[in-house]
Amino acid sequence: MLGIFCIGVAQAQNRDSQPTPAAPSSEEEAVLPTVTVTAEPSAVTEDSGSYTTPQMSTATKLPLSIRETPQSVTVVTRQRIEDQNMTTIRDAVQNTPGLALSSAIPLRNFFSARGFSVSNFTFDGLPANVGGYGAESLLADMAIYDHIEFARGATGLTQGSGDPSASINLVRKRPTYDPQFQLSGNAGSWDRYGAEVDVSGPLNQARTLRARAVAAYQDHDSFADRASSQNKILYLIAEADLSRDTLLTVSVSRQENDSVPTSGIPRLPVAPDGSDLKLPRSTFLGNEWEYRDRENTSVFASLAHHFGNRWKLDFSVNHIRANQDMLGPYMSWNAGTGKYDQRAGIYLYRNEWTNYELHANGPFRLLGREHELVFGLSQRDSDFSSRSSDALTFSGMDIYHWNSSLVPKPSTHLITRVFRTVEEQTGAYLTTRLNLADPLKLILGARLDWYEYENKTLTAKTNYKVSHNLTQYAGLIYDLDARHSVYASYTDIFKPQNNYDVSGSLLDPVVGKNYEIGIKGEYFDGTLNASAALFRVDQEKLAMSLDDQSVCPSYPAISCYRAAGLVRSQGVDLEIQGAITPNWQLGTGYTFVDKETRKDANPANVGQRASTDLPRHQFKLFTTYRHGSWRVGGGVNWQSDIYYKRAGFHSRQDAYAVANLMAGYQFDKHLDIQLNVNNLFDKRYYQAISSYVSDGNVYGEPRNFMLTARYRF
């Protein structure tokens, strides 16, 4: 049905948009030869006005179109970021098909896809595994990015170790050859204000030296009492043409975020049996003195050289340093008093990631046909340390009449928990796309990784090594015609994990296999892409949380885990993104995920649904239409129910839909005004639910608006 719909649209537009040849005005004009101008497709989406891109490389390292990539992929372009007023990576995830929030703590970037956590982030193609608490330090303000590429499923070929969920590639803005300046400001509900300056252009007459600077500031209060957030970012990047074929790029960015409460939006407790206490959305159960300060500094450099035979050699390095300081409370249920207690703690996190990569790609000829090859070496280092403590600060809270100034600020903190995790991963990979026949392409890839892990606490030290782990990849693409292709792909799964069982022993690495088959369509010279896919993920030894104090006495301060047997996730991915007509942009997708336990040490778990806190069904749509100076848009995000259920505890959020609207007016080529209205019908829902009485539910935002003005010249 998807293919029939898109074929019909394509045929209709081709008939309507086919230009009528102009009659030659003279005999001389009539005999002029036809000149065809071609250019390499660009992955830059800025100023394209499009909801798709002609090229990406997140899944295979090969520069391929979406139709040529044998995997489900989505690109959130610069136009879509601005149309939906996305300011953070969370905004992009919430509006991307197949991805979901998977944390009851709003400012923690815990995302999921296909039933698994997302820990695979890349920056301009350089990977950095930043899952768990490391992801909290990943500040990703959309002001500095041209677009985001989401490759769903396993991406072991480009990542090495990782989850079979998705890889998120954040592609930074680049300097422009022509001068440009943009100033924007916004104001919205709950005293939310922001401003952004973006300046770019050449620094010399020959335009061989170019630079760009982006500065942004956001000051947001919240629908919840006393909740607020301030975010600042500065981004500088320069490019230098060292020769006609050699490009040097250097960039640095600095982001800072201060928020109250520590979770950004208050977490609200549930009853001991998991039922909803129906607290108002404005409820704040924290303290006046709590805070959460985060900072992130990133340095990036690359040197690229193009050879005359269309080969390219690139060396890149990316270093990220992030700090996070928190002082705040969490709640726990006291069965003896029948009320909630508050414990406060100080938490100090330090993260560093350094990534190096040398890779080359280009064509080669074999058996009379041209093929493509990419090979590379990579080194990835990470260092994460945590120091924390907590103590009982208040017993017997009255959650319906709480006074945030009641509890005095703790004066001293004795650090009681210290741990440090150091990881190193060295890899070598090779990928080739073989042109077996005009309509048939075969992508083969392999990657070897050496992995070292070390964890230290106050009382123990754990370390292990994994040598020459082999990750294999295969993808077959067959062109049915000029617009449609079918594909099948396979990827190995491997991920060491730093989760511990009840006895304190480290769990074995996760292993598994990822399969996908599908059909893709590309229309209107690649400005509209459509896809339909079936996928299956088999994963063994995945850590399963034991968030139950009867099993894990250290919870919630320290979680315990056990290794699952075989967990299978399978489902359907449907998506359309791009231009239906020159003035009509569309991004929409439906995802179905069925994840269940197939083998387990506990027979009672076999056949049971896994990850019930993630929706099985998701549908996301956003579309815009431009008419003259006006443009209007809107969309809806719908998901099925989510829940946690175990003996004596059941928390649940029923299926819900949230509608959004957008309207904009362009006064001239310089000034543009846009209004966004989110949660149009003021739906009351929880965007994340509690797995335990102390974790808390998190409300989604009530109806709100944001007015944005942009001035360009």
Characterise this structure:
By secondary structure, this protein is mainly β. The protein has one domain: TonB-dependent receptor, beta-barrel domain (Maltoporin, Chain A). 6% of the residues lie in helices and 55% in strands. It has 6 helices and 36 strands. The strands form 6 sheets. The chain has a 22-stranded antiparallel β-barrel. A 5-stranded mixed sheet has the order 1-7-8-5-6. A 3-stranded antiparallel sheet has the order 2-3-4. A hairpin with a 4-residue loop joins strand 15 and strand 16 (339-366). The longest helix is centred in the first third of the chain and has 16 residues, at 2-17. The radius of gyration is 26 Å and the shape is globular. Mean pLDDT is 86; it is low at 1-41.
**Distinct helical segment count:** 6
Class by SSE composition: mainly beta
Using the coordinates shown, work out and report the CATH topology.
Answer: Maltoporin, Chain A
- Please name the CATH architecture: Beta Barrel
Globally, the shape reads globular
Look at the structure and name the CATH superfamily. TonB-dependent receptor, beta-barrel domain
Radius of gyration: 26 Å
The CATH class designation is Mainly Beta
Percentage of residues in strands: over 45%
Low-confidence stretches: 1-41
Estimate percent helicity: under 10%
Specify the biggest β-sheet: 22 strands, antiparallel, barrel
Mean pLDDT across all amino acids: 86
What count of structural domains?
Answer: 1
* Total beta strand runs: 36
Give the CA-CA distance, first to last residue.
44 Å
